[in-house]
Amino acid sequence: MLFHAPKLPAEISIRHLNARVNEQRKKVAQMTASKLELLQLSQQLSKEARARKKNNEKVYVLDFKGDTAASAVESLREEITLILATAEAGRDRVVVRLESPGGMVHGYGLAAAQLVRLREAGFHLTICVDKVAASGGYMMACIANHIISAPFAVVGSIGVVAQVPNFNRLLKEHNIDFELYTAGEYKRTVTIFGENTQEGKAKFEQELQQTHALFKHFVEKYRNQLNIEQVATGEHWYGQDALDLKLVDELKTSDEYLLSLLAAHDVYTIETRKKPTLGEKLGLQAAQVADQLVPAVVNKFLHTLSQANSSLVQLRDPKL
Q1: 22 to each of 41, 58, 59, 124, 267, how far by Cα in Å?
Q2: What is the pLDDT of residue 297?
Q3: For 137, which of 133, 149, 190, 270 could close a Cys bridge (C-beta 3.0–4.6 Å)?
Q4: pLDDT higher for 306 or 147?
């Protein structure tokens, strides 16, 4: 990792997607194609390699799978820092495969800010949504120069929600007092255990509306082609409707899009993964040995037992 030392050891893995796909193409061709077709494939791959070298454009692919806390931002920030330190803005491009239904404001605000770093550095950013980019997920997606959505991906939900249970009446029924002490008029607007006032509820609603206004302003800044009042209702839409509303720019899966880039671009996937500890390595090795050894031992035991049983007098009811 680069700037932030993780609690668990981690490393960044980089794979050349062209090489991986071409290797699979060769394996399939060796099993199914004639010698002439194999030669033609080899010539085609060489031609594509020369075109990529001449084009000299690289595409870096990142993955973001978001939970409520947007915890994947810890990996995203490191991967983006690596790209900013090594890639060339204006020539190289970045693709993010995004999947998130949204979550906490501050978590997704930071995740979106990481993507803004790419835009401000001059990189062309494409975001692919195969399943869902809603609420905080769309806050991230709207930063892209180009948004690609699968036909039935869920997009939008530009809204803010807060759910606060209140146990005050239950406490009163059991004669339990709840005391809350604050300094500052609005230090606590609504509480879980206390009795919420109309003034506190009104202030809490005001804060929600303020957050929603900030959200709308942020989306409008990066996608000014939107009718923000039409789409910022908290609703979500599927691919074709999202395209009609200009929430996305194109309907296509991420696989289809990346495949179209392979002939002319060197495409690299960047992934942050946890390094296995020594104990995990030893456990993995032991598991692999066991997977190989146990079936052989069991089969040998069953064979020996079968031979022994065949030579023994058996005491059993022949009807059973």
Answers
A1: 10, 17, 17, 26, 12
A2: 65
A3: 133
A4: 147
Set 187, 306, 311, 319: catalytic member = 187
- Among the listed residues 100, 135, 149, 254, the single catalytic one is 135
Alpha-carbon gap, residue 75 to 65, rounded angstroms? 11
Two structure tokens written together for 90: 């204006």
pTM of the model: 0.79
Name the band, by pLDDT with cuts 50, 70 and 90, for residue 12: confident
Q: What backbone torsions phi and psi does residue 251 show, to the nearest 5 degrees?
A: -105, 115
55-81 burial code (b ≥16 CB/10 A, e <16): eeebbbbbbbebeeebebbbbbbbbbb
Compute the distance between CA of residue 165 and CA of residue 183 in angstroms, rounded to an integer: 23
256 and 150 Cβ atoms separated by less than 8 Å: no
Active site residue 246: no
Tokens 């957050």 correspond to: 211
| Contacts (Cβ under 8 Å, ≥6 apart) of 188 | 180, 182, 200
Active site residue 187: yes
pLDDT digits (tens, 9 = 90+) for 41-81: 888 888 888 888 888 899 999 999 999 999 999 999 999 99
How far is residue 247 from each of residues 66, 110, 204, 217, 301, measured CA to CA in Å? 20, 21, 29, 15, 64
